Amino acid sequence: ETIINQIAAGEVIERPASVIKELVENAIDAAATRIEIVTAGGGKTLMRVSDNGCGIPVDELTLAVSRHCTSKLTDDVHDIRALGFRGEALPSIGSVAKLTLKSRPEGADSGFEVSVSGGHMEGPRPTALNRGTIVEVRDLFFATPARLKFMKTERAEALAITEVVKRIAIAFPHIRFSLAGTDRTPLELPATGTGAEATLERIAQILGKDFADNALVLDAEREGVRLSGFAGIPSFNRGNALHQFAYVNGRPVRDKQILGALRGAYADVIARDRHPVAVLFLTLDPALVDVNVHPAKADVRFRDPGLVRGLIVGAIKQALSHSGI
Ligand code: ADP
Ligand code: MG
């Protein structure tokens, strides 16, 4: 069982940032409105994610760290409202690191915790806690020394964690996020609300007011596929592609086709070694896209990739020409 979990961990957990992604997504699935993240050593020594979500009842704590136990599956595979649904993340993390899961659901008189280290579980035992869940991960990959060697510098891992948090935070402006330990100054993202205005305000927190105030507004639709979002004016470009954010049906994705279309749209107005800044939200019938190509869920498979590319390139080129660029 531990070995199977370690193999699964190889798929889902590549580096500290993948742990942060899984834990933050769990907090979002639990309807949290505040998510606090603390890290040390680029996440290699410590990652702690606290939320004020629905919590886990004591009789489900053991299940939560067991393989393929998820509280989120519906009958329809396309109808995946929750971000996570494989029941793999917590057991995977517990098989390669020291994991402590503390939780207290609404109405419970106390919190409980379980801990898993290298696949060995202890608990549940009572613990003092407010409503919500705290997941603490220490010494990532201590149980798999070969994997440990592949981690990058603290600085690089910390940067990847920051990127993951920003990427998710843009899609959930009604949630307050904080991230400490990855940089000298912690990242503080107060909740901005719901709707387009709130999204733009969250984008301003992350990409700067300068981007948000001057960005081209995208809003286009083709054959049921809708694109909305914001694209930087050509002079607002960057030396790397870290400032490109794409979402499919509200989930962050890092998809080559979408990013390729973005690059294509700016090919004539931005130098080849520079990268446009943009936030793209695609909305379409879930039956027309597979977001589960890989457990890490970064790539997507569109039924009609050409349509999506045409939509993105067309909308951005049109916005550029309307603004006289
Ligand atoms: P999945 O998210 O795919 O269901 P995980 O291994 O990430 O699998 O989590 C296992 C289960 O633990 C979830 O289905 C959920 O019931 C519970 N859980 C995990 N994290 C939280 C959290 N922060 N708040 C409430 N429940 C949680
Ligand atoms: Mg999950």
UniProtKB/TrEMBL annotation:
<keyword id="KW-0540">Nuclease</keyword>
<comment type="similarity">
    <text>Belongs to the DNA mismatch repair MutL/HexB family.</text>
</comment>
<keyword id="KW-0378">Hydrolase</keyword>
<feature type="domain" description="DNA mismatch repair protein S5">
    <location>
        <begin position="203"/>
        <end position="321"/>
    </location>
</feature>
<keyword id="KW-0255">Endonuclease</keyword>
<comment type="function">
    <text>This protein is involved in the repair of mismatches in DNA. It is required for dam-dependent methyl-directed DNA mismatch repair. May act as a 'molecular matchmaker', a protein that promotes the formation of a stable complex between two or more DNA-binding proteins in an ATP-dependent manner without itself being part of a final effector complex.</text>
</comment>
<dbReference type="GO" id="GO:0004519">
    <property type="term" value="F:endonuclease activity"/>
</dbReference>
<keyword id="KW-0234">DNA repair</keyword>
<keyword id="KW-0227">DNA damage</keyword>
<protein>
    <recommendedName>
        <fullName>DNA mismatch repair protein MutL</fullName>
    </recommendedName>
</protein>
